Amino acid sequence: MTTPPGPALGWQMALAFVLSLLFLTGLIAWLQNVHMITANGMYKSIQAEPWIADFAHARLDPSNYLYFPLYGASARLLDALGVLRGVPWKQFAYLNAVWASLGVAAVYGFVHRLTGTAKVAVPAALFHLGCGFVLLLAVINEDIMPGYTLVLVSMLLAGVWFDRPTVARVVGVGVVFTLGWLVEWRLIFPTLPALLLALAIAPIPVMRRAAMIVLLLASIMAVVIATQLLWHGHNGSAGVHNLLWTGKGVDSGWAGLTWGKAWTMLSGVGGYLLTFGAHNDPVASRQAALPLALSVLLQVAIFVACAVALWPRRREARLRAIAVVFLGTLGAGQALNLYSQPHDPQMQVNVMAWLTVAWALLLAAMAERGRAVFGVLAVLSLAPLLLNIGFFARWRDGDTEAMGALATIEQRFPPASTVFVYWGFEPITMWQYALWSRSWDWDGTPGDAKFKWIAIDAGAIRHAGWTPEQHAESIRRDLDAAFARGYRVVISDVWTWSVEELAQHLSGLAAADRAPAIHAMLHDHYEATPLLNVPGVGTYYEMRVKSAY
After folding, report:
1. For residues 280 and 292, which has the higher predicted lDDT (pLDDT)?
2. Are the C-beta atoms of residues 354 and 330 closer than 8 Å to each other?
3. 139, 219, 319, 496: which is deepest, by most CB within 10 A?
4. How confident is the model at residue 261 (pLDDT cuts 50, 70, 90)?
């Protein structure tokens, strides 16, 4: 098929960007909840505050080397324009909408380049926008969207270029790809092997393939070195080797293989297409197993239908390049995710980009075979978008409600005299951290900040080598310190969990074996009575030391 001249396609892509941005900004304003599913974006916006206040002296983070300078400068611009001035945790959601819209435009251009027609590119771009985790991360303040978009663009370019790689094409992919993972370090791992493999099977002489592989690696290194030199001498600047390997999340409770992660993998893969709940742990994932499995089956059906439709063209170099880039990223990415956090939207969004490509190729194949079937698929392209908006609607005004709940908690439990005990992942802890005091849980170091809290999961996350007894004893020491200081101690619904429930939650951190010791320590030495139920948060119980203890 023919592709229209560059300027014509450029205008279409610009229109796709503008329409996507208008839609996403409107959705953000309507939802009024930039913390759906995950509260990580609030912490990242706090971490970016020095970049907004004093760009020249803020500290670089090797794992997000370009993210904080990029979003810090962007937030400063929004402040100057009077857009949500001084509220970066809201600004970041709108910035994510900008980057997500660039991603939609890139998908549109990619599909149009493959098919030569807007008839296929429009529904494919809408399908991409509607995928659950893509839409979610486009309207909340999580930190992955700019890095994801750049890496996605590099993958799309590789898909249409690596069937006939040239020096300019390989260097272009390497530069865009490296800028993406310098925004979020871990993005390097799933896609780099896929890009190298795509060059290794290119229909060119063997020595030229080897030269192109070396060129890709050299372009990556050149961008890394240039970035290192650009920031040399800045606060926290890192060397080239520290940028290539930051070790983020390696020596922590997130690393490891457990059966619980099989359930959270189901949550991550199923939720990518249809995001109907916050299934962040094995317990929630198991409870939602049926709808999550149905979502996975839909994805499998799309893959099988695409493979069958394109099987006669399996020897085409471009299709092989596309398959290697996107399915290679899928395979490597899910292997890494299973070892870390397979439920996390930001861990899945780049790995699962194959689904949009498969849908686009299926649309293109059906457009050539029959108007009726293509029409049905084109209409179905809107289904994920409409369904996910419906799911998100249940969380409307969540930020306002959370701040109202926080006011109730503060009135009932004065922070100056209260220590809170949490599982550790309750969303309300993010608000207490952000709006009361920027103080982490005690974890063996009791403090007197406004927000004083003990997290049951702290030992599993930060001390992967602890025994169950060490973990339980650490919590007990913190509790005893709170009582010794005269603080009132209140605990969340984690108090009501059975040993089995606690083990299931800890299995997502490769620490299920710690549950019996922790549960016995809590219930053998302390007692608790219900005090206050806060809608959207849960019940708080007042803890006391058992008289026999």
Report:
1. 292
2. yes
3. 139
4. confident
Q: Is residue 70 part of a domain?
A: yes
| 84 neighbors 91 (Cβ within 8 angstroms) | yes
Does the CA dihedral 415-418-419-421 come out positive or negative?
Answer: negative
- The answer to whether 265 touches 343, Cβ cutoff 8 Å, is yes
Structure token digits, residue 59: 């500290």
What is the reported pLDDT for 282? 84
Q: Structure tokens of 357? A: 């490509």
Q: Residue 133 burial (CB < 10 Å; 0-12/13-18/19+)? A: buried
Give the CA dihedral 386, 389, 393, 397, nearest 10 degrees.
-150
What tokens does 504 get? Answer: 């299931």
Q: How far apart are CA 540 and CA 529, in angstroms?
A: 9
- Could you tell me if 478 and 359 lie in one domain? no
Asked whether 113 and 9 are in contact (CB, 8 A), the reply is yes
The 10s digit of each residue's pLDDT in 195-223 is 999 999 999 999 999 999 999 999 999 99
pLDDT tens-digit series, residues 432-450 = 999 999 999 999 999 999 9
Q: Is the pTM of this model over 0.85?
A: yes
Picking from 33, 67, 237, 40, the residue whose alpha carbon sits closest to that of residue 147 is 67
Strand pairing class (453-455; 418-422): parallel
Please state, in angstroms and rounded to a whole number, the distance separating the CA atoms of residues 271 and 292.
7
3-state SS class at 418: strand
299 Cβ contact partners less than 8 Å away, ≥ 6 residues apart: 269, 272, 273, 355
What are the residues whose beta carbons fall under 8 Å from the beta carbon of 544, sequence distance 6 or more?
A: 489, 526, 527, 528
CA distance 323 to 329: 10
Strand order across the 488-491 sheet: 453-455, 418-422, 488-491, 538-545, 526-534
Q: How far apart are CA 540 and CA 98, in angstroms?
A: 40
Domain boundary among 393, 422, 448: 393
Provide the residue range defining the domain that includes 124: 6-247+258-393
Same domain, 347 and 426: no
Parallel, antiparallel, or unpaired for β 526-534 and 453-455? unpaired
Do 176 and 41 lie in one domain? The reply is: yes
Residue 492 lies in a domain: yes
Tokens standing for 214? Answer: 């070396």
Domains of the chain: total: 2
**In the chain, count of helices (H) and strands (E)?**
25, 5
Looking at residue 248, its pLDDT comes to 72
Phi, psi dihedrals of residue 541, rounded to the nearest 5°: -120, 140
Can you give the three-state secondary structure of 449-500, one letter per residue? Answer: CCCCEEECCHHHHHCCCCCHHHHHHHHHHHHHHHHHCCCEEEECHHHHCCHH
